[in-house]
Amino acid sequence: MSLTSVQRWVMSTLVAITILHMSAGLVVAAYFVHPTSSQIGLLAISGAFGILAIEAAVLIHRHRPVTAWLLLGLIPPLVGAWVIFR
């Protein structure tokens, strides 16, 4: 692999993992707040951060901004909603 390619993979991985940690932290915060409306709000913000994480990684690789990969960003809030509301 070329140096540029390796740099892109490292940067996209770091960006995605860092922002997904923020998304997961919001899910944990939603678990500990009491009002249901606050939980739903935090899960929605978590979903936005998750999509942003995948979008940033996709754009670093210079691919099209709209892709099915963006759905991966919804995994943390969906798992959190299942844990919280079951």
Explain the overall architecture.
Helix 1 runs antiparallel to helix 2 and helix 1 runs parallel beside helix 3. It contains 3 helices and no strands. The protein has helices at residues 3-32, 36-60, 75-85. The protein has 86 residues and is mainly alpha-helical. It has one domain (3-85). It is elongated and about 50 Å long.
Query: Which ranges are low-confidence, i.e. pLDDT below 50, for 5 or more consecutive residues?
Result: none
Please state the CA-atom Rg, rounded to the nearest Å: 15 Å
Which structural class best describes the helix and strand composition?
A: mainly alpha
What sort of overall outline do the alpha carbons produce when their principal axes are compared? elongated
Element order, helices and strands? HHH
- Domain count: 1
User: N-to-C terminal Cα separation, in Å?
Assistant: 46 Å
- Helix content percent band: over 70%
Quaternary status: single chain
β-strand percent reads under 5%
Q: Strand tally, please? A: 0
If helices are DSSP runs of H or I spanning 4 or more residues, what is the number of helices?
Answer: 3
